[in-house]
Queue: 2 jobs
Job 1
Amino acid sequence: MNKEKIRRLFAMESENSWKLLFYPGRWILLLLTMVPTIYAFWLSIQNYNLAKPTQHSFVLFRNYLNVLTDSRFLGALGTTAKFTVCSLALELPCQENIWERVCTDHNHASDDHDAGCSRSDLEDVL
């Protein structure tokens, strides 16, 4: 790379200048999310006791099997599923009603009944 290309790149005059801002941020976000995720997975496949941190053993997927066969976990999973289904059953019709009302009010205000309604219309009204 010659000096002129380097000068243009750092002066943000090059078509590739955006990479100077994009790539470091991408790597930082990748490290901030992947390193803890990988470490959490590593801990989950070990028999690790916080009271005795020096004594741990590798158990592979036995911890996952224990959780999936635990009646308390399955009960909590069922409760979560019921809550999610009930919440969606109540929220989705309300959301559709609000969306329809906002679009109707917006169309009456602009006297343009054939325009339809978009997300930007909702943002304009709110």
Job 2
Amino acid sequence: MIEQNIGKDIENLAERKQFIEDNAMASEKISYTRQLSKDELEELSRNLVENNIDIRNLKEEKKIILRQYTDKQKDLEDTQAVIIDKLKNKSEFVSQEECYKFPDYETRRMAFYNKLGDLVYERAMKPEETQMTMFLMKTGTED
């Protein structure tokens, strides 16, 4: 009858190995599945918990980094869209810039010029703007 264990009564592992070698017919290298001890199982369980925590932390870091890269990429794509729009239209939209009104009473039109002197908008004069007033255009040479 084949026993499940031999030499287990010998506490010293080196002596147990020697006893087994001395009493065996021969030795041969084989692969097999070894049962784990209770201590080994507990250690593996602790390692598994630590590993799960590390994985969770890495996933959170990955989310943050991915969100940062996604935001950065979106900013670049938005900037690219603005640049493409400007190139395509050969112009850009200017919001709430101070412009200067000049009436043309003959054509009943109001012209709007930016600070560089460029005509940026014109429209029909409003009724309250049609009153003739003294308007002297300065040439920049007056003192």
